[in-house]
Amino acid sequence: MELTEAQYQRIASVLPVQRGNVSLSNLQVLNAILYMAEHGCKWRGLPPRFGNWHTIYTRMNRWSKNGVLDRVFEHLQREKILHIKLEVLSIDSTAVKVHPDGTGALKKTALSPSASPEGVGPAKFIWLPRMLERL
Question: Is the dihedral of CA 38, 71, 44, 46 positive or negative?
Fold first, then answer.
């Protein structure tokens, strides 16, 4: 899924203005981000046609922190260019525990470090945007 120049022009007002000597246009970076969201590959696995993966990651990270990506995806859906569904998955072994009897293990009398509330820590989440369909 890549945006065409005409589709990009409909949402260009949401993206920051590029200044100085930049190697990648906002359209190229946005298409790379959409590719990552659609295929779920690692940043280093980004095809070379998109440009340097580190440059794309740095700009995506900056946009994410400044709220630009939220506005872009909202605008893409409002303009009916993309239909996006966000899923949140929790992949953390401390979030779901099996009762000791369920594993066949012997019961322990002392608390282990992971059983204490301080050792659990915050839940870890992975955000998985999914492209549902092209409108």
Answer: positive
